[in-house]
Structures are given as C-alpha cells and as structure tokens.
Design a protein that fits this description.
Porin; 1 helix
Length: about 180
C-alpha cells in the first residue's frame, strides 16, 4: 500500500523554542529621568513560541551607569509579543501592491529578505518603586530582521518604553527610546 504524498499545511503550527531562539543586542539610549544621560545597555533574549507570523520573545536587559557621583544598576525582564511581516497586510491592489512599494522604498534590493516586525513590551524592572521592589514596564517596538544565513540574522529596531525606577532614593516613571542592533542565532 502506498502512502499519499505529503500535503502542505494550511494552518500554522505552534513552534516551541524554534531554530533561532537566542538574540544578543547592544542598545544605545537616552533617558528623560534617572539619570538623564546617554548610556550603553546590553540585552539578551530567546524566542519562546512562534505561530505563523506571530512570535513571543522573553528578554532580559541589564543597564549600568557608573560616574564619580553615583552608581546605578537596573535589571529588566519582559515579554515581547511580535508580529512579523506586518506590512504584508497591505497586499493590494493586485497590479502593484502597496506592501511591495513600501518594502522597495525601505529595504531596496533586500526587500525580499527583510522581515519587518511590530511588537509590544510588557514586564518589570528592579529597582522599581523603591530600591528593593520591582516596578512595571510597558512599551512598543518596530524593527527589521535580515536573515544572513541559516540560523543567523541581523536585527535592527527602535523601541519605546515607560517604566518605574528608583534613583537616588526617589521613585518616578522613566521614558526610554532604545535603538538596537543585534544578532540572532
């Protein structure tokens, strides 16, 4: 008895810890509170679930700023749900789809390899409301991933977040813009 040929799946299948789950990013940022300075931060994360064009990442970020006047260290842990290739929603009109025009303008000759994404950030920081308690973190991001080779890609993004932070005995909400360039394995 012969087996039927493999059929292509119509529905996406949840993929736990996919092939490229780890990422490393170097972040350049400027803050509006605690402390007002430009710094370099490092973050690492992993992709916990991929389902079609959606993925959920978990990210740990360490921020450290040392000067003669103060020392501050901050740890953030957050969940990052992302929608990959969100531009493809604009796949109309048939003659010249809007998404192809946007991809051509933004990515030029790499338009077919680029994976643009939009995402949310939800998590917490330590120190938060005071020196020993956590605070909340939320925000959003937009970026693009360029697959370079099997299992390796370059990721560039911009993210905005608001979070509680304790700095020099005072607690407040900080706003942060982060521009990241990193690699994913």
């Amino acid at each position: 008895m012969t087996m039927p040929p493999r059929a292509a799946a119509i529905e996406a299948v949840p993929e736990w810890f996919p092939l490229r789950p780890f990422n490393f990013d170097v972040s350049f940022n400027q803050r509006t509170f605690g402390p007002q300075a430009r710094v370099i931060a490092v973050q690492t994360g992993l992709t916990a679930l991929r389902y079609g064009l959606l993925e959920i990442r978990t990210i740990y970020q360490y921020y450290s700023h040392h000067t003669p006047n103060f020392v501050t260290d901050q740890h953030s842990l957050f969940v990052n749900p992302r929608w990959n290739n969100f531009i493809d929603v604009l796949d109309f009109p048939k003659a010249y789809p809007i998404n192809r025009a946007i991809r051509h303008v933004l990515f030029g000759p790499l338009e077919d390899r680029a994976v643009p994404y939009v995402g949310a950030l939800i998590g917490g920081t330590i120190p938060g409301r005071d020196a020993d308690s956590p605070g909340y973190l939320y925000g959003g991001q937009v970026g693009v991933r360029f697959p370079v080779a099997r299992g390796f890609s370059v990721d560039m993004g911009a993210q905005y977040s608001r979070f509680e932070i304790d700095f020099k005995g005072k607690s407040d909400v900080s706003q942060q813009w982060l521009f990241t360039i990193g690699v994913r394995f």
